[in-house]
Specification:
about 375 residues, alpha+beta, DNA polymerase, domain 1, hpI Integrase, Chain A, three-stranded antiparallel sheet, 7 strands
């Protein structure tokens, strides 16, 4: 009896896998944990090891009975007629009504493409061919969502023992360069900040002034703030490195406002009732709150998380203000300068401004000035 990990997009499942004396193979999901939460992972593994020990003791005593929810894998020799892709999609849709409503619609295109083929015959090469055609016919965001729905289907097939591995796991999702770095304009940011309550406004101002990722800012504690040296220690979400962020006057005023709240939390940013934003459910609620306000204000950000657009706005503003690439890379916590270089891409107005300056230096003012909007 062994414990296997099956990694999904948002969570990791722990599966007990083994065989009984009569050759029956058992596969049972015993725990699920968030891969970004060490405490959740520790508790899940403790539960899995305890379950494994209990099963082994019962098997040795001859009193073990397979759980009603246990899944028996396919026999070692493949059946004469394997399940087709279309048949498994139908079974998956019927037994999983809790899945997202659009999963069935997204899987319909794959049924039309691979319906008669055995599920086991779908390879990463087939997915790469489909992905290339899909990204040419639709938005990259749509193709990524289609691929995610297909990956969920394949993970269920792995748990059912129909296939050995998820072919979608080997596919790298395409980057959406056209929607990367879509920042809020000044008027959009002003309207958004004016439409929220003070507790939400404080953390949105934190995103605006620091350019930190959502999890990085939400988990800041007062112990991370060195008021004497005007430094804020930000633990990077991806690398777990600690960046000492310099606190400017506007950010210091925001931190003083947070400290002056009647109900003080261990975390810097909290709502008006003193409840911090650090937990994942609270972070999701904040995202949905901002997304709803953006919809009411008719501000569209297709394919970009609404909180992450503050980070893009910070990067573009710093690049336009003349902050060198190396310093901006440090402030934003990027591991490579290539990621930071996105914020230094020239717009049409940047080119016109450069030409106008060059025209002045050559003694001519024939080039029109940049537009006021700067876009």
């Amino acid at each position: 009896m062994v414990i296997r990990e099956i990694r999904g997009k948002r969570a990791t499942k722990l599966i007990l896998d083994g065989r009984l004396a009569d050759g029956t193979r058992l596969r049972e999901k015993v725990a699920v944990y968030d891969p970004h939460d060490p405490e959740s992972k520790r508790q899940a593994w403790v539960k899995a090891r305890d379950t494994k020990r209990t099963w082994e003791q019962e098997i040795a005593a001859g009193i073990f009975s397979p759980p009603a929810t246990a899944r028996k894998a396919a026999p070692a020799t493949p059946p004469a007629v394997e399940m087709t892709f279309a048949a498994y999609v139908a079974a998956f849709t019927e037994r999983s009504p809790h899945r997202k409503p659009d999963h069935a619609a997204r899987l319909a295109q794959f049924v039309a493409l691979w319906g008669p083929r055995p599920l086991r015959s779908i390879t990463p090469a087939d997915l790469r061919i489909w992905l290339g055609e899909r990204t040419r016919a639709a938005k990259v965001t749509t193709a990524k969502k289609d691929l995610s729905a297909l990956s969920v289907l394949f993970w269920d097939a792995v748990e059912d023992g129909i296939i050995e591995a998820n072919p979608a796991r080997a596919i790298r999702k395409p980057k959406n360069d056209t929607e990367h770095g879509v920042p809020y304009r000044d008027d959009e940011m002003t309207a958004l900040l004016a439409a929220v309550e003070p507790g939400v406004r404080r953390i949105l101002l934190g995103f605006k002034l620091t350019g930190a990722r959502s999890k990085e800012l939400r988990e800041l504690r007062w112990s991370d703030y060195d008021s004497k040296n005007a430094l804020l220690k930000v633990t990077r979400f991806k690398t777990h490195a600690v960046t000492e962020y310099p606190v400017a006057a506007e950010l210091k005023a925001l931190l003083d406002d947070c400290a002056a709240q009647p109900v003080r939390s261990l975390y810097i940013f909290a709502d008006d009732a003193g409840k911090p934003w650090a937990s994942k459910p609270r972070g999701l609620w904040l995202t949905q709150k901002v997304r709803g306000i953006l919809k009411d204000l008719k501000i569209t950000r297709d394919g970009i998380e609404p909180l992450h657009s503050f980070r893009h706005a910070f990067g573009y503003a710093a690049a336009r203000a003349g902050v060198p690439l190396e310093r901006l890379q440090f402030l934003m916590g990027h591991t490579t300068p290539q990621m930071t270089s996105y914020y230094f891409k020239l717009t049409g107005d940047d080119c016109r401004e450069a030409a106008r300056i060059l025209g002045h230096s050559l003694g001519t003012n024939a080039v029109p000035a940049a537009s006021p909007k700067g876009r």
